[in-house]
Amino acid sequence: MAGYGIIFLFMLLHDWVPLGSLNDVSAVMADRSAKELLVVTAIGVGQVLLLIGLILLFIGKRYPLWAKLWLVIHPSFIFGGALIAWWIPYLFGIGAQERAPRYQEMFGSTHSFLPVMNGMVPNTIHFIFHATLLLSIILTIYIFLTDRKKAEQHQGITS
After folding, report:
1. What is the DSSP string of 51-74?
2. Which region holds residue 16: left if phi is over 0, alpha if psi is between -120 and 50, else beta?
């Protein structure tokens, strides 16, 4: 839940609220219209609220298979988008020529701790978002796998 809470705040705030050197709201607003930003924010926030709602719906209960799959597959697709948008161009240069100029305009004045590669660098706030998302996916898989083992052990004890 904590990971998705952080992701929710990221989705809600990062394009709208100045966060010091972590973002450049004016540069993002110069690149995108307010309507486009509203749509992107609504989609991102809606996705995270769906995940949080699903977690809360079954918290303390046994998750049905469809919910387990949703809680792994949905955020994995979001993470896949982050890989395509940021990490593949950054690490391998694939698509970097198209993305680097735009990213430089929107994120060039923001804090980053990684070296520039292929003309771009993921900034710190996106790095935190991507790392939190990946950790949330890994923890979800771990919880579901260990939950199944606990259920099997419990069933073996009571049989």
Report:
1. HHHHHHHHTTSPPPHHHHHHHHHH
2. alpha
Cα gap 66→93, rounded to integer Å: 37
Asked if 134 and 28 count as a contact pair (C-beta separation under 8 A), the reply is no
The one-letter amino acid at 72: V
The answer on pLDDT for 158 being more than 60 is: no
Whole-angstrom distance, CA of residue 95 vs CA of residue 78: 18
Model pTM? 0.88
Give the pLDDT mean for 46-63: 93
DSSP tag of 8: H
What's the token pair of residue 143? Answer: 């919880």
Q: Per the structure block, which two tokens stand in for 133? A: 């998302």
d(CA 5, CA 128): 13
| Helices within the chain (DSSP H only) | 2-13, 25-31, 34-58, 65-82, 88-92, 96-107, 124-158
